[in-house]
Structure formats: C-alpha cells, structure tokens
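Page 42, continued from yesterday. The earlier attempt failed because a stray header line got pasted into the input along with the sequence. Redoing it now with the clean sequence only.
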Amino acid sequence: MSDKKISEKDISSAAELLYKGAKMLAYHCPDCKIPLFEKDGKIFCPSCGREAVIEGQQEEKMVDERLPEPRQPSTSQDATEIADLSKKIELAMSKVCDMIMQSRSVEEVKELSESLEKLADVMKKLK
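This time it went through. Structure tokens are written below.
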C-alpha cells in the first residue's frame, strides 16, 4: 500500500456510494489505492472513475444465484414491522455515514465502512 492518505473527498464519496447501495469490495484501485465499489453490475474506483474487472467474478455470481429468495411479509403486521425496522436501519446507516465523515483514522473508517456494508445488506434482504 502506498503512503498516499485518503482525502476527505474520497471518504465522503465512498460513504455516499455506500448509502446509495453500492458495495465496497475488498479490492483496491491499482492507481490511487482507494477501495473499489460495485453498483449496477459495474466495478469502479470512486476517486479516479476507472472501471475495473476482477478475475474470478463469474464464480462469485454463481454463489449469489443460489441464495434463497427473501420471504414476503405474510400479514400487514409483518409489513409494518419490516417498515419500522427499515426506518431504524436507515437511521443507523445515516449515523454511521456521519461517523465516517468525522473520523480521522483510516482503520476506523474501514471498520465503519464494513458496518455500513452489513447494514446495507440487511436492507436489501428486507426489500
């Protein structure tokens, strides 16, 4: 990893992408060392805008296709509970984004980003 520090703009951009449903990947841009993101089937660097291709991606998609479909609410009470839970998760995601914006530690940003990604995954499963 290079000595280049991640700018506040890059952190803001990453947090916004996560909030909008993009997935932060474990891979980094070879040029600017910022984590790569995936959204709408495209993998890209939010800092320099380059698109990326990750070898072995076909295998990963095959695993995702085997996941069971999320269950649909069976009653209006279930739907209400899911809506309430969704609102709480959105609030938590917003707070985590704020914490990322205020953080001065790369390690803390990494941990918070992982938490944000997990919250986003839960939201996708609820919908």
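Notes: Confidence is low (pLDDT under 50) at residues 58-67.
Reminder to self: strip header lines before submitting.
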